[in-house]
Amino acid sequence: MRTAIALTLALAFGAPASGAVVVIGNYTDKPVSFTVAEPKAKAREHTLGANDVRPFFVAGPAVLTFAPKGKPLALELDPFAPYAFVPDRAEGVRFESLELPGMPLPADAKPDPNAANPRGPLKIAVTLYVDDAETRAERLWQGALRERFTEAATAIERASGIRLELTAFATWKSDPAAKSADELLTGFEAAVKVPPGALAIGYSSHKYDAKAEPAFGATRGIASRHVLLREWVPRNEPERVEVLAGFLARALGAVGSPDFGSATREPLADGYVLRPGAVLRLDPLNALALNLWADERRRDPAVAFGTLAPENRHRMARIYKALLKAAPGDALAIAYLEDLARDPKKKENPPPDAGPIVLAARDALAARVIKAVRTRAEENAKAPAPLTGDELTEALVRAAAEVALGHEGPEGPPAFLLAVGVAFDDTGALLRDPRTAGAVRPLESDADRKTRLAALGNPTLFGRRDVCRRFFVGCAAGELLPPDDAERAAVARALADADGATGTCVPVIAAEFAGATFALATQLDANLLGKARAGFLAREFVPDLDGLVNGLSGQKFAEKYGSATDERFAAVLDDVRARVRKLEAYK
Question: pTM value?
Answer without folding.
Answer: 0.65
